[in-house]
Amino acid sequence: MKFFTLSALALLLLGFWQGAAWAEIESDVVDMIAQESLDKRKPTLAVANKAAVAKKLTLEALGMACKLMPIRVGAVLTGQAPMEKRSQECLEKQLGLKAGSLAPLLEPPARWNVGSIYRVHEAIDVYAPAIQRWFNEHFGDYIMSAIDFVVEVKETKGSHGDRRIQIIFDGKALPYSDDEGWAATQ
User: Fold this and answer.
1) Which fold has domain 2-24+114-176?
2) Is 145 part of the annotated catalytic residue set?
3) What is the mean pLDDT of residues 169-180?
4) Is 164 a catalytic residue?
5) Is 87 a catalytic residue?
């Protein structure tokens, strides 16, 4: 474990850590697929968001009514997350839309990175080596799942009363394979 920690620190100090460049995928194919996905979802997203504004429904209110975290509702209504059937029925009811009108949002979206999320990438990139070190110290050779995963965003108050944003990533701890998994077969 010491070797890993020292190696990570050495890479960081030597400038081999590429930061946000590692987090972004730059590809015309990715852009085309993501744009096509968004174009298919746009008309439905426009109807849903227009209804939410007209009814003055916040993400908090929709989340509470549909038993979802507000950020999950926001991810669905911005086209960044797929919606499940139960959520579709609830959101259609809350938004006053006819049954089936949100069906296009059931399909998983193709996503791409945009400049508006740069700061989240930056925060992860800056603290990733320390986070990995913490994982190693507490779990051993583990990573956090982004599949068995939820994210919660809260507004908090700082020590001087300032408004702050708290992002909580909650993912399953997954071990890398050990020597037993790499044993040669006879």
Assistant:
1) Cyanate Lyase; Chain: A, domain 2 (3.30.1160)
2) yes
3) 90
4) no
5) no
